[in-house]
Specification:
The chain is of the alpha+beta class and 236 residues long. It has 6 helices and 12 strands.
């Protein structure tokens, strides 16, 4: 626990082989995540976290002002899809009106018709499965399109459900992307893809790397601002 102005903040501590420094993040559910790099120690990590009291207090204030995202998705719930708040709507498709057993339940999300077992209860698991499958079709294709444009060689593109990052690039030229990019605007999706692709040229976050990013995505700062203003998408 971290104590901030008399308030106890629960903390989960994780070690990361990829992390190069101590990182403290506040999730949308109020849980803090403290990352320890491979060469770090738990004692130094806690000392680092305790020095972030003012920052944590500001984050808690911002968190209190954010609109609460529903944990359960039901008919009528609005969720982000391609950067827009889209309402989940019910739809029905009767293949054979004389046979009730042949009825198919569907819901509509923007331009997507999603088959579903039932339109009652929490629809989130079924919708997330559908969106992840959609992302698995769209994101690799977009990545390979950009790779060809910038004459970069990608060994493989994977779509995963990372909890703390939008994407990554390995030394083996494997790009991993978060399926929730399907919920962001296209220009944000493209920035994340280009960001990871530019790591094929600079496997760091040096000034040279950011020049590569700017050359490939001149308005990347706008995309970073959108992500900053729309936190919590990675929190489940």
């Amino acid at each position: 626990m971290l104590l901030v102005n008399g308030r106890e903040i629960p903390v989960t501590v994780v070690r990361s082989r990829r992390a190069r420094r101590y990182v403290l993040r506040l999730r949308a559910d109020g849980l803090a995540r403290l990352t320890i790099p491979r060469s770090g120690s738990a004692r130094e990590a806690w000392e680092f976290a305790e020095r972030q009291g003012e920052w944590l207090e500001r984050q808690l204030q911002d968190l209190a002002l954010r609109p609460v995202r529903p944990k359960e998705w039901r008919i009528g719930t609005e969720i982000l899809f391609r950067g827009e708040l889209v309402k989940i709507e019910a739809a029905s498709d009767l293949t054979d009106p004389t046979d009730p057993s042949d009825q198919k339940s569907t819901i509509q999300l923007g331009d997507q018709i999603i088959p579903i077992a039932s339109t009652t209860g929490d629809l989130r698991p079924a919708i997330e499965r559908y969106l992840r499958a959609l992302a698995s079709r769209e994101l690799p294709a977009r990545t390979l399109e950009f790779a060809a444009l910038h004459q970069l060689s990608v060994k493989r593109v994977t779509v995963r459900a990372q909890r703390s990052r939008w994407g990554s690039c390995s030394f083996k030229s494997v790009i991993s992307l978060n399926w929730r990019l399907i919920q962001t605007p296209p220009f944000v999706r493209d920035y994340i893809i280009l960001h990871e692709l530019m790591h094929l040229r600079q496997m760091n976050h040096s000034a040279r790397f950011w020049r590569e990013v700017e050359g490939a995505c001149p308005d990347y700062r706008t995309a970073k601002l959108w992500l900053k203003e729309n936190p919590g998408l990675l929190d489940r």
